[in-house]
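Write out this protein's structure.
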Amino acid sequence: MSWRNHSTHKEETKAIKVALKEAGIPFTKVGHGTGSGWSWLKIYLGTRENYNKHGDHALAIARRVTGRKGDYNGETLVLAQRG
């Protein structure tokens, strides 16, 4: 994928975790989808309150750090709960 700043999912995940921690945004998990959704980046913020408070900022950070762009926010999801 030419629109990404990182060559692997592992590198991308690590960079996002570091950036979110530096910004003081609480998260429970950062990862990628599986199967046909393998390219989707998923950021879980835990509670609905964290999502409402930090969701937009977390998405902006993820897009900046990863270089993701295009449809569906560069195939990036910010979610309240895992599961």
